Amino acid sequence: MMKSREDRATIDAIVVEHLVVRRGGRDVLPDLSVTVPSGQVVGLLGPSGGGKSTLMRAIVGVQQVESGIVTVLGQPAGHAALRHRVGYLTQSPSIYADLSVRHNLEYFAQVLGAPKSAVQRSIEAVDLVSHADATVATLSGGQQSRASLAAALVGDPEVLVLDEPTVGLDPVLRRDLWNLFRRLAHEDGRTLLVSSHVMDEATRCDRLLLLREGVILSDSTLPELLAATGAPDAEQAFLHLVDRAAADAPTGERS
Question: How far apart are CA 16 and CA 229, in angstroms?
Answer without folding.
Answer: 25
